[in-house]
Amino acid sequence: MAARGSYAKGIAKRDEILTTALRVIAERGYRKTSLRELAAAVGLSQTGLLHYFGTKEDLFIEVLRKRDDVDMATYGPDANQTDVIQGILNVIRHNADVPGLVHLYTQFSAEASEASHPAHGYFQERSAYFRQIVSGAIREQQETGQLSAALDADSIALLLMASSDGLQSHWLLDDTVDMAGQISHLWEALTRA
């Protein structure tokens, strides 16, 4: 019975670390957040912190997964009874409030283009998952007559995701870029033409 309690405590501590890391990285930035600071924020040594994740890269991959989970629960279509496109726009608007997490995402996504990077699989899975969700939402709107059946749902989903990722990089360089406004404009151009 003690093993189950230890396991549950380990899961709870891991979740505490990820929740704390989301907050600290969002506030301080990816480059300005050290493992020592994250460990201290949850009452652990650096070695103790890495015990839960293995490597620094694995920790940051799990931070990105946690970010996706929180964003979907908070801003996704199920959270506020809105459609998938509106959910995407909600997440993009939220990203303007968490520049450190946007930087972590863009940095890791660029590095993960190499197959040997530990985050390569995460980004492949994430991309496939979100493309499926967005293309499915487009197909639903096509079935109800909201969108033209002539539209290629898979292509539009890919263009939206690529544009969103690219806009995040531009926004990090120039925070006056209205990411959500640009994606909204693209959506209208792609679907109403």
UniProtKB/TrEMBL annotation:
Keyword Transcription regulation belongs to the record: yes
The HTH tetR-type domain, residue ranges: 11-71
GO-annotated molecular function: DNA binding
Domain of life according to the entry: Bacteria
Keywords carried by this UniProt record: DNA-binding, Transcription, Transcription regulation
InterPro entries from the UniProt entry: Homeodomain-like_sf, HTH_TetR, Tet_transcr_reg_TetR-rel_C_sf
Residue ranges of the annotated DNA-binding region, renumbered to this chain: 34-53
Protein's name in the database: TetR family transcriptional regulator
Organism: Arthrobacter glacialis
